[in-house]
Design a protein that fits this description.
homotetramer; mainly alpha; DNA-binding
Chain lengths: 200, 200, 200, 200
Amino acid sequence: MSHALRLFAERGYHHTQIADIIEAAGIARGTFYLYFDSKRAIFAELLDGLFATFENTIRPIDTTAGAPPVGEQTRANVVRVIDTMVSNRDLVRILMRAAVGLDPEFDGKVADFYRKILSVIRGSIEAGIQMGLVRPRDAAVAAMIVLGGLKEIAYHYLVAGDQPPSSEVVAAEFLAVVASGLLREGQSDQLRLLAGGAAS
Amino acid sequence: MSHALRLFAERGYHHTQIADIIEAAGIARGTFYLYFDSKRAIFAELLDGLFATFENTIRPIDTTAGAPPVGEQTRANVVRVIDTMVSNRDLVRILMRAAVGLDPEFDGKVADFYRKILSVIRGSIEAGIQMGLVRPRDAAVAAMIVLGGLKEIAYHYLVAGDQPPSSEVVAAEFLAVVASGLLREGQSDQLRLLAGGAAS
Amino acid sequence: MSHALRLFAERGYHHTQIADIIEAAGIARGTFYLYFDSKRAIFAELLDGLFATFENTIRPIDTTAGAPPVGEQTRANVVRVIDTMVSNRDLVRILMRAAVGLDPEFDGKVADFYRKILSVIRGSIEAGIQMGLVRPRDAAVAAMIVLGGLKEIAYHYLVAGDQPPSSEVVAAEFLAVVASGLLREGQSDQLRLLAGGAAS
Amino acid sequence: MSHALRLFAERGYHHTQIADIIEAAGIARGTFYLYFDSKRAIFAELLDGLFATFENTIRPIDTTAGAPPVGEQTRANVVRVIDTMVSNRDLVRILMRAAVGLDPEFDGKVADFYRKILSVIRGSIEAGIQMGLVRPRDAAVAAMIVLGGLKEIAYHYLVAGDQPPSSEVVAAEFLAVVASGLLREGQSDQLRLLAGGAAS
DNA sequence: AATGAATGAGTTTTCATTCAT
DNA sequence: TATGAATGAAAACTCATTCAT
């Protein structure tokens, strides 16, 4: 029910009442329970839909011969994800706000979802390492930075309501930072310090 | 009340009842309301404490002459933040789970907190750019990636319960990725593709 | 509807839902209401059927000349009643459990049914008294003991699920106790005490 | 709660709402749930009280030397039971109407209660048989007739609302029928027929 | 300062019944 | 004659908050 999606996104799980949903949908109480077992059930169903939407958006990097260049595929992924989020703000709001901290079951579902996405990103990074494109780093941590960076950007521009620059600019900046890092080339002194001055 | 902190962290806001808190604290209902106006109030108080703890942990990079090297300061910041989070899991859980999606007021408080932190990070990056240490990038987006990456790492290792490697390793990996990026040097072809194949 | 009978007997009135009945009968909701006005209505109809079944089972003692001996008629009545109950457990369960305590109207119907039966029994006893076969006792109370005894036996063996001896044994024991009482002959001392020690 | 007892007795379990109980008791909803877990719970508590009341009313026949005569003890039991019932009509109504056919758990509790009472009566009858006071009959069936007769009398005079004669008269009639039976002495022909004409 | 019994507004869920097709 | 999607009144239960002691 799209009305439920909108309401949950706007008000959160607990502040959305069945009464609100059925009023928005223009149906009767009984009708609601004809299609959904409970408030939890409709939210779970909604959530599963959102998970599926995102999982379809992210495609593992294809490294077989003849596939498009890896950089191209990566960029396409990022653009697709950002497009999906931009055109489905409610979806992002539910995933990042309404579905968080509800109870162990929902938290588990959300955690599983992020784990799945992380494993795709990690897989791509590991492939990149093997191909010699990516520096040999801990792929799990790197994947978390990629995912977390994207989530934080989405949160501020789509949920917290900060003024959003264009999607392309954001995507380009994001990729640039992730690809080349923040440090300017030739700053090996600072690098050493970052890596733990005492140790070196 | 430390009992409240623990309970909110364990069960979330809505699943923690006043009854649980007073039972854990061994006080009477009335006594609770003697010290706190409401459930919201104690949670807000708790939250403000958490914000303060973290804000003390992050120190703006000091660029005046005679200050420790910038890389050193940055590393110290990251290590301090990670240490604080590791030794206060409940605090992280509340911030990342219990305090999310409660209602506009709490969401606003949390958003303000992150904005504050973001502005510190952004300020440091901008300083780095001016000093010629950091590549000239959109500092706001870069700051989000830094913050988001850290949050995601905290979420998986401290909230979702994935098995955490040692803090030092995580800190080192985090800094390395953020500093130098993922892409190996000399991969300018891929870089161009990442920046938007069509455009080039 | 035989399915309704079974369900009401198994689960009671309130725990049997229209949904259960139509599912068991393999018909649609609307079809049910085509044949029965309401849940009450089908239950009332069922109940009337049960009353009729039992009323046909009990035949007033025929005292006209040429009729079978009174003892024979009485025994036949008891055997018929027990046989009917044994071969229609659902019917007994509804009468003794599902139809009890529903509301004033149903309670009234059930009470009327038992009053009718009582009046037949009482009539037989009064006839027996007039014929000199039966001791001159309060026929109303005596009839209640006969009916109540039979009901209690039915309750334990057919409703509560206690292990039942054979029908014949039960019938014989029942008739023996009702006919000759519990006290052995010649125990006039105890009889006097039973009748009220103070008075003698 | 005496108000609950009255209401359950008057209207039955399902027609008594929590709203009725709290209104009658002059308390708030929350107060009710402070003392009782649920509607079931208060009814179960009430029921257990009623069971205890009756169990205290019936005393097993004492057959040790020096005890009052058995007939006297029996009569005292019957009088006590009838007195209890007469002075607590609500109690009888709940036991015989409101608590019947609610669900398997309550039905089981009621059945257990009656089984307990039956076993006391059966024990007394068996003792009487051994002492030579009572005819050697199936004590279980005899006990059911005693209990059932009493229940039916109670039902008609206290629940169904038929005009009640005095307690003493009812008690005397009841004991007389149970003690000496209905058949007049010397009606051995009829007795034979009752026992099964075909067989003899 | 501390207590805890009492409160009642607020919400979910159930299920007999209807009626357009 | 049959269907089954839609209805909405009704009722149990929760829990943050109050206030007299």
